[in-house]
Design brief:
The protein has 241 residues and is of the alpha/beta class. It contains 6 helices and 12 strands. Strands 5-4-3-6-7-12-11 form a 7-stranded mixed sheet, with helices on both faces. Strands 1, 2, 8, 9 and 10 form a 5-stranded antiparallel sheet that branches. The protein is globular and about 50 Å long. Bound molecules: S-adenosyl-L-homocysteine.
Length: 241
């Protein structure tokens, strides 16, 4: 899997480039077959450490050694880590986002996390802003951990945030109405639109901590919840046993 995004198919990258060049951007629309239309305020993709959630700040505080910022976007986390003199490399499938990161002096390359040609190794692999999304579907969880085996240095760690979407299926009395015969409830499809640029539909995985722990253990990893957010979100640290 070494899919990359070209500018004509990259709504978020165009929004990031506009914001970087002009200090403002249009509406970055998020469509899904499962939710009402939403919007990502483009400024939030450029958030500073002060503007980050406590969960994200905890993630930054746990970064050490050679760090890989996966799906780095505008590079907000890489920027903070570099300011702290950390050794951080960013990857993203978006050529425009990578351009914006490089123009800020960050070490960034247009690389897909799952591209086997990318062979470097890291002490910390950081996936933030529902970082589990990149895994796409639960059935790809094993492939994700196998890829992590290739990218992690001995003793290395993965720092990843996600949300448990169970609140979408909770009845008023607190009981769940999850159809166990259908797909895992955290599997979502998204499509982004910015100005006239329409992206392709992509899979995005929200995973509850117990499911993540199950697959982590199955693949020889220890899963620890480092922090909980305000709305069913959490930060996990995954280490090879
Ligand atoms: N981490 C950033 C951006 C999150 S948006 C932040 O917190 O602000 C998710 C980013 O992941 C997008 O920039 C998208 O282009 C990138 N991405 C999606 N799939 C990827 C993959 N397989 N490999 C690398 N980057 C990916």
């Amino acid at each position: 899997m070494n899919f990359l995004l070209t500018p004509d198919r990259d709504p978020m990258g165009n929004a990031i480039l506009d914001y970087y060049k002009k200090g403002k951007a249009g509406k970055l629309r998020v469509l899904s077959s499962m939710f009402d239309e939403d919007e990502i305020p483009v400024a939030t993709l450029f958030r500073t450490k002060e503007e980050m959630s406590p969960l994200e700040r905890t993630a930054l505080d746990h970064c050490r050694g050679r760090i890989l910022d996966v799906g780095a976007g505008s590079g907000c986390h890489s920027r903070e880590l570099k300011a702290q003199n950390q050794d951080v490399t960013a990857i993203d499938i978006s050529s425009l986002s990578v351009q914006v990161m490089q123009e800020q002096g960050l070490s960034a390359t247009q690389t897909n996390l799952f591209d086997p040609e990318f062979k470097e190794r890291f002490d910390t692999i950081l996936l933030l802003m529902n970082g589990s999304g990149i895994i796409g579907k639960v059935e790809r969880m094993d492939a994700f951990f196998q890829r992590m085996n290739e990218l992690l240095l001995p003793g290395g760690q993965i720092l990843m945030d996600s949300s448990d979407l169970r609140y979408l299926y909770e009845d008023e009395d607190g009981s769940f109405v999850i159809d166990l015969n259908s797909d895992y409830y955290g599997e979502v499809d998204y499509k982004m639109v910015y100005k006239r640029i329409h992206g392709e539909t992509f899979d995005w995985l929200y995973v509850d901590f117990e499911t993540l722990r199950y697959y982590a253990n199955k693949n020889g990893y220890h899963a620890e919840k480092l922090a909980e957010g305000e709305h069913y979100d959490y930060l996990a640290c995954l280490r090879k046993l």
